[in-house]
């Protein structure tokens, strides 16, 4: 197998480490979701048309986690962003309105999150050695 990789550009978004990178749905264009130790999650454009790093940041989710964001995930259509943190918290953000809901349940830092849209589950993993599946529903009756 022959695989060729080449760096297209170096995009400096955060002053601290990026903990995770996730591709967003293709319907949103060439974008990624970043989780950072600076307590922010970023939606960043990978478009070659933008000149510098600051113009590539489409949206920043910030000021709600008390410690570093360790992972982030998005809903299938990209309208919700889920962040998990070393503060033991899960936050679900509405991508456009920037409203959010906060959840907890782990005893230590939450290190990973995934979303399974087939069975409406958000699953988190933690330094406490546990994983927690959470059922979700978006919409008018969900409170979100």
Key features of this structure:
single chain, 144 residues, mainly beta, Methylamine Dehydrogenase, Chain H, four-stranded antiparallel beta sheet
Description:
The chain is an all-beta fold. The chain has one domain: Methylamine Dehydrogenase, Chain H, CATH 2.130.10.10. Helices cover 3% and strands 44% of the residues. It contains one helix and eleven strands, in the order E-E-E-H-E-E-E-E-E-E-E-E. The strands form three sheets. The protein has a four-stranded antiparallel sheet with strand order 1-2-3-4. Strand 2 and strand 3 form a beta hairpin. The longest helix has 4 residues. The termini are far apart. The mean pLDDT is 87.
Give a quick summary of the entry.
The chain is mainly β and 144 residues long.
Question: Could you say what the CATH architecture is?
Answer: 7 Propeller
Under CATH at level 1, the class stands as Mainly Beta
Structural class: mainly beta
- Give the overall shape, derived from the CA principal axes: globular
Tally of alpha and pi helices: 1
Q: Could you list the spans in which at least 5 consecutive residues all have pLDDT below 50?
A: none
The percentage helix is under 10%
CATH superfamily: YVTN repeat-like/Quinoprotein amine dehydrogenase
Mean pLDDT: 87
Proportion of strand residues: 35-45%
CATH topology: Methylamine Dehydrogenase, Chain H
Radius of gyration, in Å, reads 16 Å
Q: How many domains?
A: 1
Q: How far apart lie the N and C ends? A: 47 Å
WD repeats: 62-94, 103-129
Pfam families: WD40
Keywords: Nucleus, Repeat, WD repeat
Subcellular location: Nucleus
């Amino acid at each position: 197998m022959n695989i060729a990789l080449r760096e297209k550009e170096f995009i400096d978004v955060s002053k601290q480490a990026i903990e995770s990178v996730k591709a967003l749905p293709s319907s949103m264009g060439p974008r990624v979701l970043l989780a950072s130790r600076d307590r922010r999650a970023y939606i960043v454009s990978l478009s070659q048309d933008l000149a510098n790093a600051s113009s590539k940041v489409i949206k920043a989710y910030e000021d709600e986690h008390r410690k570093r964001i360790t992972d982030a995930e998005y809903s299938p259509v990209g309208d919700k962003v889920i962040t998990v943190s070393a503060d033991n918290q899960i936050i679900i953000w509405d991508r456009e309105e920037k409203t959010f809901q906060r959840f907890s349940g782990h005893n230590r830092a939450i290190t990973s999150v995934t979303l399974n849209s087939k069975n409406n589950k958000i699953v988190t993993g933690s330094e406490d050695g546990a994983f927690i599946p959470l059922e979700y529903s978006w919409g008018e009756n969900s409170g979100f």
